Amino acid sequence: MHSFNLAAFCSLIALFLSLPVHAISGVHAPVAISLPAFSKECLYYDMEDLSDTLLVGYQVLTGGNFEIDLQIVGPDGDVLAEEKAKKYGDFLLKSFGVGQYSFCFSNSYGTALKKVEITMEKEDNSILDDPNASEEDAIANHAIEEIDRNLNKMTKIMNYLRAREWRNMSTVESTESRLTWLSLLIMGVMVAISVLQALLIQFLFSSRQKNFV
């Protein structure tokens, strides 16, 4: 059994608090866009350095079959990546040059309005191994990296579960709407059949009375 070293723990916390804020990757709030049927919306991101790496994630929350198209265009106008009929995606985009990148989402499947949630975040490479750093600094840096990785995993899992909940609720609402219209249709058919039966019986009885006369 290893004894708990309170002094070392306090030293680790102190080093953690003394590190610059940019050592932990910033969390960017997701952006939600609405895509009507057969529409296209684009988001733009400026790469400022050739070593930049962009973390891109998107997921369809509501609408029909939850499928969209994605096209990524580089600063020079070349199509870097293209995805068809996807419900979600999560990938790293390496820099193909400094400039503006466009991420265009298209709704070409079905006639339903679709809600898409997109996150874009530049990968943080500021936590580097410094050969001149002390052992305590190295331990603190590795601890921060591990915490950052675990937080990113937890965020991705929570986003995935939330998207599943949105899609399930959308399916339930769509099913309820279809059941409502189906019930109204059945009621209309029953009324029409009842009216036709009454008219047919009235016609038969009136025609027999005329024959006897």
TrEMBL record:
InterPro entries: Emp24-like, GOLD_dom, GOLD_dom_sf. Keywords: ER-Golgi transport, Membrane, Signal, Transmembrane, Transmembrane helix, Transport. Residues 40-122 form the GOLD domain. Coiled coil: none annotated. The keyword Nucleus does not apply. GO terms for cellular component: cytoplasm; endomembrane system; membrane. Residues 1-23 form the signal peptide. It is a single-pass membrane protein; Single-pass type I membrane protein. GO terms for biological process: endoplasmic reticulum to Golgi vesicle-mediated transport. The chain crosses the membrane at residues 179-205. Pfam families: EMP24_GP25L. Its main location: membrane. It is found in: Endomembrane system; Membrane. It comes from the Eukaryota. The keyword NAD does not apply. Belongs to the EMP24/GP25L family. This is GOLD domain-containing protein.
